[in-house]
Design brief:
Layout (H helix, E strand, L loop, with lengths): L1 H19 L3 E3 L5 E5 L7 H17 L1 H4 L7 E11 L7 H13 L3 E8 L7 H4 L25 E13 L5 E13 L5 E13 L7
Parallel strand pairs: 3-4, 3-5
Antiparallel strand pairs: 1-2, 1-7, 5-6, 6-7
Pfam family, one: LpoB
Keywords: Signal
Protein name: Penicillin-binding protein activator LpoB
Length: about 210
């Protein structure tokens, strides 16, 4: 009986310890504002929230809200910097953004031009078939048919770690995105979304 009681105490202690170490979303003051999270790192839900915030901001911006029906701006993926301690695939964010942009009917994505190289090299590869007698030259893409992008999507994901007075660690993630007009170099839209989390150092996953 005593052994059973001891095991119950140990189990309760471990349970309370687990609850204490559970990371949570926080506001700038360090207080809970959205409940628990599974990690102090970035989850799929965090990318979903950031992407939803950004696309709503973009589509409601005066620069694009009144865009003429049927006119679709061509967008290329520019540089999106991962300035965090995490090994992030920034495509998780940019893909969600560009998919929503395309579905809006106001934008179309080019895969022929992107920061670091084409997203799909086939646009160039098929043009290398010119002069190859094995292919019907009438079916090869003609010169001057590729469309240059109007805008470039750029951004950064930044991380700041802050030690709180209660001994926990607050992690601030800043998502920054913008659209550059490639003709003028002017930024037509930009916005940011901050996601704050806090927890013990034991809950850090990186």
């Amino acid at each position: 009986m005593r052994k059973l009681a001891l095991m119950s105490v140990v189990a309760a202690t471990l349970l309370l310890s687990g609850c204490t170490n559970q990371p949570f979303y926080t506001d700038n003051s360090g207080k809970v504002n959205q409940g628990d999270t599974i990690t102090l790192g970035l989850s799929n839900e965090d990318f979903e929230l950031a992407a939803e915030t950004m696309i709503n901001s973009l589509l409601s911006d005066p620069a694009f809200a009144n865009q003429k029906p049927g006119v679709r701006k061509v967008v290329a993926i520019g540089r999106v910097v991962n300035d965090t301690a995490l090994r992030l695939d920034t495509d998780k964010l940019t893909r969600k953004i560009t998919q929503a942009m395309r579905r809006s009917g106001k934008f179309v994505l080019t895969s022929a031009v992107a920061s670091g190289g084409a997203l799909d090299s086939m646009s160039e590869d098929v043009r290398e078939l010119r002069g190859n007698d094995e292919f019907n030259q009438k079916t090869i893409a003609k010169k001057g048919t590729l469309i240059s992008p109007d805008f470039s999507l750029f951004g950064k994901i930044r991380q700041d770690n802050i030690r709180l007075s209660n001994g926990k660690t607050k992690v601030e993630y800043l998502f920054l995105l913008g659209l550059t007009d490639l003709n003028s170099g002017l930024v037509y839209w930009e916005d940011e979304k901050t996601i704050n989390k806090a927890g013990s150092s034991d809950s850090v996953t990186w």
